[in-house]
Amino acid sequence: MAIQEFTGDTMQTGHQTLTVNGQALAALVSNIAQTDGDYTTHIPGLMMYRRSKTTDPMPCIYGLSLGVTVQGGKRVLLGEEIFDYAPGQSLVTSLDLPVVSYVTRASSAQPFLGMGLALDARVITQCAAEMNFSAPLKASTSLAMSVVSVDDGLLDAITRLVRLQHEPQLIPLVAPLIQQEIIVRLLNGEHGPALRHLMTAGSPGQQIAKLITWLKLHYTEDIAMDELADKAHMSPSTFRQHFRAVTGMSPLQYLKHLRLQDARQLMLNEDIDASSAALRVGYESASQFSREYTRLFGEPPLRDIKRMRMAV
Fold first, then answer.
1. Maximum distance among all alpha carbons in the chain?
2. Helix-strand-coil percent breakdown of the chain, rounded to 5?
3. Per-residue pLDDT tens digits for 145-190
4. Is a pLDDT exceeding 80 seen at residue 22?
């Protein structure tokens, strides 16, 4: 299998010129992800991905994480925002976000290769509190997703973490140290402001992050938008403004995405019908559920679930 590595020499892609020394990471990922699929590793939270062809847009939830494209290309849609990331670029998601994700460049000869690492909010908060930053945070609220190029220091740390797969006896002691280094480098780099906005005590970003944590536990309940504003200690208009600035969508859109994603998993995993799934996730009207499900996933519930089962 040919590997289009991002190397120390200049390499042209469809979107940019790369000068990142990444041969080692490309070889490691391709060795783990030898056929199409998603691969867990011995390191908690570390995943590898391979696709030999482009994929259809797939609504899903991205959690607090770092993603890196090693080969090929990927696109993530967050509300009206579009994020394309190519070899040598990283995507950081600062909190749980409903997105639409798909591979845009892949082939049998040059498959898409990528990796993802779940990040620990407590470690981010602890590291940020101990670091001295050259520039203070601006008062504005940052979108909880960003794409930037991977610098050499971050790439080296990621490569060392993936290489630990070959030394499983060292993983319990060494992996947490490298993961902390990765977080420090993210905070110190271009991803830093978005992460810091959501971890700074008392900031609007942190208030929205806390509210989203609550919403994930209570989204099946009958929730008024003004109630969410009260919980965030903001006026309704200020709350909507900050919520959209962080998540790229309105609170109501976010709530719908949570419900519809959960309903889809219920139908897939528990083999229940659409009406039962709708009630479980908080819908009172089965017809409204079906309309909104079709709008998000592109097909009515029954047809969508049938297609997904056939694809497995």
1. 58
2. 45, 20, 30
3. 999 999 999 999 999 999 999 999 999 999 999 999 999 999 999 9
4. no
Q: Distance of CA 131 to CAs 94, 140, 148, 183, 210, Å?
A: 18, 21, 21, 11, 23
d(CA 26, CA 31): 9
Strands 81-85, 73-78: pairing is: antiparallel
Tokens of 96: 């749980």
Amino acid at 149: S
DSSP-derived letter for residue 169 is G
How far apart CA 68 and CA 85 sit, in angstroms, is: 8
Identity of the residue numbered 26: A
Q: How far apart are CA 67 and CA 209, in angstroms?
A: 20
Give dist(CA 167, CA 286) in Å, integer: 52
Task: Please give the Cα distance from 211 to 254 (Å, whole number).
Answer: 12
Structure-block tokens of residue 276: 């039962």
**Residue type at position 188:** N
Question: What confidence tens digit (pLDDT) does each residue in 198-223 have?
Answer: 877 778 888 999 999 999 999 999 99
At 196, list the tokens.
């810091």
**Torsional class of 244: left (φ above 0), alpha (ψ -120 to 50), beta (otherwise):** alpha
Q: Alpha-carbon distance 111 to 248, whole Å?
A: 30
The answer to whether the predicted template modeling score (pTM) of the entire model surpasses 0.70 is: yes
Place of tokens 């479980």: 280
